[in-house]
Specification:
Elements lengths: L21 E2 L3 E7 L5 E5 L2 H5 L3 H4 L4 H5 L1 H13 L6 E3 L13 E6 L2 E7 L7 H14 L6 H16 L3 E7 L5 E8 L10 E2 L6 H9 L2 E4 L7 E5 L4 E2 L15 H9 L4 E9 L2 E10 L7 H46 L3 H7 L1 H7 L4 E6 L2 E6 L4 H15 L4 E3 L2 H4 L6 H5 L1 E6 L7 E6 L2 H4 L19 H11 L9 H29 L1
Antiparallel strand pairs: 1-11, 2-3, 2-6, 3-11, 4-5, 5-6, 7-8, 7-14, 8-9, 10-13, 11-12, 13-14, 15-16, 15-19, 17-18, 18-19
Helix pairs in contact: 5-6, 5-9, 6-9, 9-10, 9-11, 9-17
The structure holds biliverdine IX alpha.
Length: 510
Amino acid sequence: LQCPVVADLTSCDIEPIHAPGAIQPYGVLIVADAKTLHVTHVSENFASSSGLRNEDAIGAALSAVIGVEPTAMLQAALSSERHSVASVMTLDLGFHRSPCRDVVVQAHAGHVFLELEIGHHPIDRHKAVSNIQSVIAELPRQTSVAEIADRTVAAVRRVTGYDRVMVYRFDAEGHGEVVAEDKRADLEPLLHYRYPASDIPAQARKLYLTQRIRIIADTDYQPVKLLTGEQAFASEALDMSYCTLRRVSPLHLEYLRNMGVGGTLAISLIHDEALWGMVVCHHQTPHSVPADVAAMCDLVGQIVALLIQQAEEREALGRTVERQAILAGIKGAVDRAPSILAGLGSVHPAMVDLMDAGGVALRLSGCVHLFGATPSATMVDLIFDDVEAVALGEVFAEDSFGRRRLDWVDLADLASGVLYLPLLNNPHDAIIWFRPQVVRTIVWGGDPGKPAADPDGRISPRKSFARWLELVRGTSLPWTRTQIRAAHDLRRVVTDGMLRHAEASLARLS
Ligand code: BLA
């Protein structure tokens, strides 16, 4: 199935990219049955590399095709490795044309895959290995996610020689942001650009959990067909999920060419079995790395993902401690003040900070009090009623309120996100925090008003950035679980305060 180039943005979710029936031409693929070790498939360029006929190879014993000794070596490798772990081996296959340098061997779904590299790499492998060693040794252990990402892009660029290396991070909705970049000085920066989830469709994300590393050696390549059967007919059924040479989606190639990219390397960063992000490398001209360097990049990716996970846990803990300190300050103010309103009002910047909000509104005994960036009092009164009706007495957080209420003029700008905390004393008393639209919040990576680099309307990162802006109009950054927990904690502070004030008033009366 070919994706239409002017695509409906969801239509590419169904492209079966794991079984494209073709490979990229920088290598040769031989597939054998895992049990019998008879060849089931070869890529069409097998003949020109080996000097054998494709028809003769298909159905033959692997040992007759690549030699007895290499077959024994790969059998040993496969029996000692976990089945889906790729091993990179140097095998002398005795092919009289195109001597093969590296062979990536792995077994998957009843087949053994041999990916033979052809061609030369401009990379000095010994230097690459010692570079990788120093990269792993130097990766910072006790630092922020931002610092780890910065060090990673610099290191991967040094090792692989790509023109641009980025760390691309996904948010909860699957939209992405370039959070670190190291590049050739003359290239336009993409740092802090954001892209919609549809730029990397769902099936591709799923695939990238198993195939952690991908090389597109030349975005302008002609795919090479995979052949099977006695007559060596084209085959599109084989699952190539683990195959590095797998033909890439033509739509993605178009995207890369429009961006002026000639070759890419992408490394998955995986957390808790989900794609946290990727290290994405671009080169203006065709470029790739040898299989062993790619395998080392995979290792770097796994280590970086672990370090990022630890850093995120440390950062979350730091934020919880910070939030508890803010909460303690608010509690002190409420306890000291003559009323809840005076107490909360005296620490309104802390109230706003507690939730990383733009502003906060209190509704106490029918009166609305506003602090920070909020819509008008009349509008806020309407919002209290609207949210109260759906919240049913519970804490309620919404990060697309501005979208749901697009008919409320100018609402989105200040109140795309709302966090509602009903207080317990009076049914209509409550607090609402407001968050601005995310498009106002982000740091612009470039001028979004600048015309896209592709006037003929083809897909490209600039177009994608504009599409992302459309997608997130009326939404705010999401409210986190820690913030919702903090809302419950604050409710306890306010309820205690109210009881104390009530007791004090009673005592004064008696
Ligand atoms: C794949 N899209 C990808 C990949 C990236 C991006 C990183 C992983 C493939 C790779 O290894 O290169 C997206 N690349 C980006 C973005 C930047 C970048 C956002 O450098 C920004 C700097 N792509 C589209 C649209 C569709 C689409 C509109 O933009 C479809 C409707 C499809 N992208 C698409 C497909 C793949 C993909 C099908 C999978 C390619 C494959 O592995 O076969």
